[in-house]
Specification:
The chain is mostly helical. 83% of the residues lie in helices and 0% in strands. The chain is built from 3 helices and no strands.
Length: 132
């Protein structure tokens, strides 16, 4: 077919342009999705930090003020916040156990030199600054 004088399809500027357009749209969609996911992760982390700093009482005071809660509503919300905090602490304890168990299992596999390097790696991870 190459003897027919027609250039191969991949040399057609319309096809090349269409492929580039599809690639560009995919790249933009991927970048936007990644940005959205990154922002969601940062917001979730900031909310958790705010909760830790302000605590239940600060949150309840803010709700009372901004939502104009009645005394009954305040008591109900206080119970919800207590349940939430207990649930959060339970999950945190479980996560700590999973991390410790995983770390122990990894250490058992390593030789002495690797354990030393692994310990430094873990220390570096724990001491790295939080990006906000």
């Amino acid at each position: 077919m190459s003897g027919s004088g027609c250039p191969p399809p991949w040399r057609d500027p319309r096809i090349v342009g269409l492929i580039l357009l599809v690639f560009l749209c995919g790249s933009i969609a991927g970048a936007l999705a990644a940005r959205y996911r990154y922002k969601a992760m940062i917001n979730a982390k900031a909310q958790a930090e705010t909760w830790r700093m302000v605590g239940k009482e600060g949150t309840l005071q803010k709700f009372r003020k901004e939502l104009n809660l009645t005394d009954d509503q305040s008591r109900e919300i206080e119970l919800v916040l207590d349940d939430f905090m207990m649930y959060y602490q339970t999950l945190q304890a479980q996560m700590d156990e999973v991390r410790a168990s995983g770390k122990e299992r990894i250490v058992r596999v390593l030789n002495a030199e690797q354990r030393e390097k692994f310990g430094r790696m873990i220390s570096d991870l724990q001491n790295r600054p939080v990006i906000r």
